[in-house]
Design a protein that fits this description.
It contains four helices and eleven strands, in the order ααβαβββββββαβββ. By secondary structure, it is of the alpha/beta class. Strands 3-2-1-6-9-10-11 form a seven-stranded mixed beta sheet, with helices on both faces.
Length: 191
């Protein structure tokens, strides 16, 4: 199974990297932010975990900027080690960031918070809410742990072109997403 997932992972990453050559690409992040705000209910108390985009991931900066403008609490994940659940620290415009494990930016001050909405990067997703990530297991472990504590929404952020028609291979530890937001629409996987 892992070999099959790794093959899909490599193909999906190459495919996503090629999307940046599209002349429309710079607007897609803004369009995805529009879809998010049109589709996802937020309250003043909602804490949203974003991610600091790496490489060709969908840039969530426009979404985060709008969340800050609307005074929503935003946090960033902190990697604890392979397969371990993520921790989360408050992220504001003035928050000092440093490169953490895997070279991904995270807040210097680790003021622990627990998100209500988890925005998840991905390489591919299917019509059942399964995703292919980077293979480290951070988000699967985190989603499983948070779902045991409270009701959360796990929302993938992706380009519409990252959708696959056939079911992705899954393992028992894989966690389904509730939604995937793209520049074109939202996919709702809740039953």
């Amino acid at each position: 199974m892992t070999s099959e997932k790794n093959d899909i992972r490599q193909y999906a990453k190459r495919h996503r990297d090629q999307l940046q050559n599209n002349p429309d690409w710079p607007d897609w992040a803004d369009q995805a932010a529009d879809v998010f705000f049109q589709s996802i209910p937020l309250t003043e108390q909602t804490i949203i975990s974003a991610y600091f985009p790496v490489g060709s991931e969908l840039d969530v900066s426009p979404l985060v900027e709008r969340l800050w403008q609307k005074d929503h609490s935003v946090c960033l994940p902190i990697i604890q080690g392979s397969g371990k659940p993520l921790l989360f620290a408050q992220w504001e415009k003035t928050t000092a960031l440093e490169k953490g494990q895997m070279g991904i930016f995270e807040p210097v001050e680790k003021l622990d918070v627990t998100p209500d909405i988890l925005i998840v990067p991905l390489l591919a997703f299917d019509t059942q809410g399964n995703r292919i990530g980077y293979g480290q297991g951070h988000y699967d472990a985190t989603i499983a742990e948070l779902r045991q504590k409270k009701s959360i929404l796990a929302i993938g952020m992706a380009y519409a072109e990252q959708a696959v028609l056939l079911a992705l291979p899954t393992e028992p530890h894989d966690q389904k997403l509730d939604f995937v937001v793209t520049q074109q629409r939202i996919f709702d996987f809740r039953r």
